[in-house]
Amino acid sequence: MAEVLVVTSKVKKIIKEQGGMNTSSATIETLSKAVERLCLKGIESAKADGRKTVMDRDIIIEHL
After folding, report:
1. Could you tell me where the beta strands, DSSP code E, fall in the chain?
2. pTM score, two decimals?
3. C-alpha closest to that of 39 among 54, 52, 50
4. Which among 1, 34, 45, 47 is least buried, having the fewest CB atoms inside 10 angstroms?
5. CA 25 to CA 2: how far, in whole Å?
6. Reduced to 3 states, what is the DSSP secondary structure of residue 62?
7. Do residues 55 and 41 lie in contact, with contact meaning Cβ atoms separated by under 8 Å?
8. Which parts of the chain register pLDDT below 50?
């Protein structure tokens, strides 16, 4: 498994509170991979703009 980039307890809590469901470990891994991809795309965007700071506008969430 790759490095976990999300707070597992918080993810489990919102899924339990909002949906009454349990959370598999694969869910945490998938979310972490998604966060990593967003970060890497944000880095590319900031570099393309000549910046050394990733800003909110660099993080584009397509499927929400």
Report:
1. none
2. 0.86
3. 54
4. 1
5. 12
6. coil
7. no
8. none
